[in-house]
Amino acid sequence: MNTADLYRILTSATELSAVEKAITSFESEQAGAVSWVPLSRQNNRGTVEASADPGRALIERLTNGTDAVLEAEHDAHHGVPNCRSPREAAAAWLGVPDRGLSALDQGRRKALAQRVSIQLLPGEDRFRRIVEVRDTGIGLKPAEMPNTILSLNESNKMSKHYLAGAYGQGGSATYAVSRFTVIASRHDATPVVGFTVVRYMDLPPEDFKIGHYVYLAVNGVVPSLEVPLNDFPGGTVVRHYGYDLSQYTSPVGPGSLYGLLQRALFDPVLPVWLDNRIHNYRRTIKGVRNALNGAVDEGDESGAPKLSHSVPIFYVSLGDFGSIGIEYWLVQPSEKQKLPSAGYVDPYKPIVLTLNGQSHSEFSGLLVRKYAELPFLRFRLICHIDCNALTADAKRLLFVSNREDARRGQVRDLVQAELVRVLNSDDDLTRLNQEAKQMGQKEEDENAAQQMRQEVARLLNLQGLPITRGATAVATKGGDTTELSKHPRPPRPAPVPRPPLELHEPPTYIHIVWPDEPVPFHTLQRRYVRVETDANSNYHTPQKPEASRINVILEGGDIGLAGTTPLTGGRMRIILGAKKDPAVGATGRVRVELFRPGLPTLTDERPISIVEAPKAKQRPQQLTLPPFTLKPVEGKEDPNWNLRNWPEDVDAIACDTEVEDSTLVIYYSTVFPQYATRLAKLEKQDTVLAGSFRKRYEIWLAVHALLQFQDEKIAEAEVSPGEQLEAFPEDQLEARDNQERCRLAIMSALFAENEIHQSAMASASALDAAM
Which of 89, 95, 128 is nearest to 112 (CA)? Predict the structure, then answer.
């Protein structure tokens, strides 16, 4: 077994056993020359095993491949122009438009994707796949490999702003989930190919606690040989044997390697070519963002997504931390797909944060459902936060080095708060949420509802919660008693659909949508102020303010412009914020100007005033429970079943709750077996008893829901929103809550059944006594 034989087997084997046999034979026949060298240092296991997801680890290999291609282009163009980001480099040297890959045609995307490819081969089974990542980038000389692709935490890319890599870990995480990793590389068009194999090696347990990761060397150096250029073009191949892809077994969709690549490479700088030999298809990986923006490639059977609403990317200043880009898409509801966003993102984490187009973290859907008050859009709304324009300090404070999460702290809080403000200020989202809510709603008997409230108030009184009948419930802490409010806050009025604006060329007006009174601001407050005009969208380019014909001018030094949204259908929003420590009582003006070539400039303005900031609210000693109502869900055919994302198994869901327009709505399943079987039995015996059982069941469900609501409010007063968001993943929280509500529903059915039987017995005793 010589070096050429070893190279041939390592780069072409289709079974793990062939690689193991070749390495053993080579070690035996080249005894004394073969050694296993630790990657960078002897204690390297912690660095290699930093990533928890085998699929995410492969993304780093693809990122390395993209960097290699950009490095080759840098050399080919002699570093001109001086690109300060991978996206700038892709635009300057490879012709990728500023708008991203969606602006290229299908053929051009496919051609670019051949520069970086990933091939999936069967291997032995789903726990031992063969995965090969290939790039046609700059490649490496054998002598360079120990300090580059075989190194850990080196500084090869720290000063190269046109590359994505920074930490020097690269794709090393793949070693932890691969039995053997073969690396071969040719620098440019040189005749020599360097190659080696990386594996985990145990160390003597009597001397060492753990083993480490090593690579094969011959006479102390990476082995090499001459290979015809046609057999191995310039670039690098990383071939993983025995790779654990057991989490990604589906051919397509969320549980597939294709779905993972689309999500993790959310907006890639360059496309990637996927060659799936297990399911026999090949696809261009262009990222979810480009798919949502209408890019369709060969194999995309469903075509472009159907959207109810979308807002193109715009940038918002975060002050000293730089700025973020925000864009979002609302997928149309689908009868076939209970979670319409699941084809693009994790539906429980639909807010994606990216750097250089790669997903670095996802935020919980609680931001959409609870804080942005859009509960009926939570499984349809997809948000993208582009973090490239954050300062270096902000990126360091926000992201961890393995690109799998966002660090809790000030920057994270600012980003989340800004996204909530954006979503809250979008009237179309508010209207669409209201429309979704109205699907499947039924009329309610107000008299019956009032009786229900009174009975629930009585039962809550029995639980030690002071309640005034016929009014809104209130829960107290520390034994304090507060009378229920007889005038609860009215629900938010339903949004009125805004009529489309008629656009003209040239435009004839621009208008700030605010009453003729000062716009108030207090310390660090942000406002999204609406602007309407009959100008076409090309009059405003938020990404390039210097080219925009709509300008925002501020008079008075206490208010700053944080950004603007795109102009769509004649509507846009300008983002204004009070600067730090503004002087209370200070005044100014905000003016919008629309420049028309050869015609007078159109303007509108409003006064601005700085008001005293509201005093911080103390943690309440009493908690007010909202008005409530119950809504039966009549089986899986009921529209609310899908709208609530209830499971197919009727045993797994009994009820859930949502606060809608200041009302606690309790949705309950009429086919939950513990309830439905008792009701059916009673209906055969006595319809009156059956009706009484149904009402008592609803009462007990309401009691439990209001008690649970009280506990949640107390918990919210004890911890910060950030802690609430990330204590558990939202899907795990929902599964846990469903289990708890099923137990409570069973108790409610038992209580209700017991009560009606006791009532029947009491009535019978009274009748006997009368006779």
Answer: 95
Mean pLDDT of the chain: 84
Three-state secondary-structure class, residue 242? strand
pLDDT at 603: 96
The residue to which tokens 């499971």 are assigned = 647
Separation of alpha carbons 547 and 543, rounded Å: 9
Cα separation of 285 and 266, whole Å? 10
Q: How far apart are CA 357 and CA 338, in angstroms?
A: 28
Q: How far apart are CA 468 and CA 255, in angstroms?
A: 52
Sheet holding 351-355, edge to edge: 358-363, 351-355, 381-386, 323-331, 307-317, 559-564, 571-578, 526-533, 510-512
Amino acid letter at 745? A
How far out from the chain centre does Cα 528 lie? 23
Reported confidence tier of residue 558, pLDDT bands at 50, 70, 90: confident
148, 143, 134: which is closest to 221 by C-alpha? 143
Question: In angstroms, rounded to a whole number, what is the distance separating the alpha carbons of residues 391 and 394?
Answer: 5
469: pLDDT strictly greater than 50: no
Please name the residue that has the structure tokens 């669409």. Answer: 432
Q: How many residues are present in the chain?
A: 771
Average pLDDT over residues 299-305: 83
Full strand arrangement of the beta sheet holding 550-555? 519-521, 599-610, 587-596, 550-555
Which pair of structure tokens corresponds to residue 215? 């690579």
The C-alpha atoms of residue 354 and residue 83 are separated, in whole angstroms, by 19
In whole angstroms, how far apart are CA 482 and each of 471, 486, 488, 617? 12, 12, 14, 18
Backbone angles phi, psi at 55, to 5 degrees: -65, -45
Q: 590 — phi, psi (to 5°)?
A: -115, 130
Q: How many CB atoms lie within 10 A of CB 617?
A: 6
**Helix, strand, coil content of the chain in percent (nearest 5):** 35, 25, 40
Whether residue 542 contacts residue 565, with contact meaning beta carbons closer than 8 Å, is answered with yes
User: Of 559, 402, 412, whose CA–CA distance to 57 is shortest?
Assistant: 402
**Given this model, what pLDDT does residue 703 score?**
82
What backbone phi and psi angles, to 5 degrees, belong to 688? Answer: -65, -45
Question: What percent of the chain lies above the pLDDT cut of 90?
Answer: 50
Cα(164)–Cα(321) distance, integer angstroms? 20
pLDDT given at position 476? 35
Q: Which two tokens stand for residue 332?
A: 């149309």
Residue 502 and residue 102: Cα distance in Å, rounded? 29
The pLDDT value given to residue 204: 83
DSSP-derived letter for residue 625 is P
What is the phi/psi pair of residue 476, to 5°?
-120, 160
pLDDT in the model for residue 449: 55
DSSP code of residue 536: -
* Cα–Cα separations (whole angstroms), residue 610 to 230, 552, 580: 71, 19, 12
Q: Parallel, antiparallel, or unpaired: how do β-strands 351-355 and 381-386 relate?
A: parallel
Contact assessment for residue 214 and residue 98, using Cβ atoms and an 8 Å cutoff: no
**Phi and psi, residue 367, nearest 5°:** -60, -40
pLDDT value at residue 171 = 79
Q: What is the pLDDT of residue 450?
A: 60
Strands (E) located in 267-350:
272-276, 281-285, 307-317, 323-331
Long-range contacts of 157-161 (CB under 8 A, 24+ apart): 157/67, 160/71, 161/83, 161/84, 161/85
Of 158-162, 270-274, 487-491, 627-631, the range with the lowest mean pLDDT is 487-491
Question: pTM higher than 0.85, yes or no?
Answer: no
Strands of 303-450, DSSP E? 307-317, 323-331, 351-355, 358-363, 381-386
DSSP state of 596: E
Residue 757 token pair: 């039987």
Q: Tell me, what's the pLDDT at 766?
A: 53
Q: What is the mean pLDDT of residues 571-584?
A: 86
Q: Give the distance between the most distant pair of CA atoms in the chain.
A: 112
pLDDT reported for residue 534: 96
